Amino acid sequence: MSEPQPQPQKPTHPQPQPQPQTAGVQLNHTIVYASDRRRSADFLASVLGLEVGAPFGPFLPIDLGNGVTLDYYEMKDRPIQSQHYAFLVPDERFDAAVARLEATGITYFADPGHTEPDRTNTLFGGRGAYFNDPDGHNMEVMTRPYVRS
Questions:
Q1: Torsion of CA 19, 21, 24, 29, to 10 degrees
Q2: 143, 146, 147, 120: which is closest to 131 by C-alpha?
Q3: What span, in angstroms and rounded, lies between the C-alpha atoms of 85 and 83?
Q4: What does the alpha-carbon distance between residue 101 and residue 104 come to, in Å, rounded to a whole number?
Q5: pLDDT in tens, 47-56
Q6: Are 85 and 139 in contact (CB under 8 A)?
Q7: H or E stretch including 22?
Q8: Which residues contact 78 (CB under 8 A, 6 or more apart)?
Q9: 114 with 23: CB under 8 angstroms?
Q10: In sequence order, what are the residues at sequence separation of 6 or more whose Cβ sits closer than 8 angstroms to the Cβ of residue 124?
Q11: Which one, of 148, 123, 149, 125, lies nearest residue 140 by Cα?
């Protein structure tokens, strides 16, 4: 008498678990338009204490260290539309960034509307400052993320 052959089992698939809509979504890079990509990239890198990377096609990148890259792209045929870029930095980098702005004579502000010059803010238990880059982008350095309700 022969042994009964095992029946092939139907594969079971785990039921998908609900996940937040943001699961697995990360910003990888963004393009920063500039009238002179080298000047603008060098400016921001010097304020933040970072390095400008090697050109990548038409882009000049600054790696922010959290997997996000700012890719500076030169646009000479159109005016640059001002954008806002905010950088979360540790306290010691904040102090160094403000010191670099002061040393180069760049005015910084406590507010995004640039009405409180040469002051920093203390929002959300941290410190923050705003300044313009060479093309008028409103840059921000802050030591604590904004509290969102």
A1: -170
A2: 120
A3: 7
A4: 5
A5: 999 999 999 9
A6: yes
A7: none
A8: none
A9: no
A10: 144, 145, 146, 147
A11: 123
Secondary structure (DSSP) of 82-134: P-EEEEE--HHHHHHHHHHHHHTT---BSSTTS-SBT--B-GGGS-EEEEE-T
Q: pLDDT of 99-145, one tens digit each?
A: 999 999 999 999 999 999 999 999 999 999 999 999 999 999 999 99
Using CA atoms, how far apart are residues 12 and 31, in angstroms rounded to an integer? 44
> Cβ–Cβ contacts within 10 Å for residue 134, how many?
16
Q: Which amino acid is at 42?
A: D
Q: Both tokens of residue 5?
A: 């052959």
Q: What is the reported pTM?
A: 0.83
